[in-house]
Amino acid sequence: MRNKYIDLINQTFDFPQEEFDVNAQGELSFHGLDLSELLETHGTPLKITYLPKISENIQKTKAWFQNAFEKYNYQGQYFYSYCTKSSHFKHVLDEALENNIHIETSSAFDINIVNALLESKKINKDTFVICNGFKREQYINNISDLINNKHKNCIPIIDNYEELSLLEEQIDEDFQVGIRIASEEEPKFEFYTSRLGIGYKNIVPFYKRQIEHNPKVKLKMLHFFINTGIKDNAYYWNELHKCLKVYTSLKKICPELDSLNIGGGFPIKTSLGFEYDYEYMIDEIVYQIHTVCNDAKVEVPHIFTEFGSFTVGESGANFYKVLYQKQQNDRELWNMIDSSFITTLPDTWAINKRFILLPINRWNDNYERVLLGGLTCDSDDYYNSEQHSNAVYLPVYHSEKPLYIGFFNTGAYQESIGGLGGLQHCLIPQPKQLIIQKDKEGKLTTTVFREKQTHQEFLKILGYEN
Ligand SMILES: Cc1ncc(COP(=O)(O)O)c(C=O)c1O
Question: Residues 220, 343: one domain?
Fold first, then answer.
């Protein structure tokens, strides 16, 4: 009988894959990185950011758009923008911006990051800064300052009726805006219409009322974002069509309108069985935009995207050691990890998100079904299923043969949601964090971004130390 862990993977998936391989000793590599060696050097728990993946995904996307534009003789341009909220770290932005891209922001302090990037010349006045989000005083002030400092390519996206007049009060000269369309949510969602943006039917009346005869404001962009992502299903294509109808109606009365922003929402790999044809989706989106605009006899728009997860998600990985196995009854085997899911991968706990989970060593050993338990005393601190299967299988626990596990493609949103530094549930310290990057000769270098959290940090926050 074939009951080694490696057999299970070979029987379930095509393996090895582009980024994963296993050596004869049963040890996993990720983008060619020897993970066992990495964990031996740095210990666990550990988080890494493998920066080259960011550039790779950006370049792939640009090429897919380029191919589709050539195929349909599309007369607009493509602007890749990075949605900063998925990971605000400087090293992430520095890597992403090496690829001549633009930025999407969501709140006031994002503009402070934009200013820092301008100062360090990572971006310049030609960089588009697309400002989404519900805007109140501080955000309005920061956006206005940026525009008043002649950053004409800063485009606030109007999310509610009041924002335009608030911006007009603060901005000295002419400026450009976008309008966000509030999409209809997927039928199974709890709400009917997204709270973000302005409803389809109200866009043209809003334009006529507040922008058409306003000498100070030009409408440049229509923005639409589908919460559930870009998927090849009737709901997505239907929403895109509704949006394109609004675009063509507006374009006929607003010649300055020249851009369509289709937001973020590209999925990332959450299982070794993941299948998604990115190139086909981009081809089809470009084709739909081209066709609807041609039928309506209006010029095609420039296309903007704001991929967050897709830009940075696949650059991240978290590693843990299995500390001990608890058998609570004859079916439930708990492998206890040396950290917490709630604090280090909050999406697994909050929205039941799954990531690729693989052992780092012992692939040649037999496997067993287990539950993974976090170190906090919270009964919800567990991980018990994968994207492709309602169970977790790992090499059999052995007290003399340590088992290490990795969660992959964890680079988006986890720190922004869980927080970095500060108090942690049950004072379980945050892991050491590494940055791995490629220099111009293609050589990989590893730097420590942050050491594991210390008890002093907790005690200081809690008021025990000055
Ligand atoms: C307006 C907007 N753009 C882009 C994104 C990025 O989405 P994703 O990370 O799915 O690409 C979001 C995510 O919430 C968003 O709200």
Answer: no
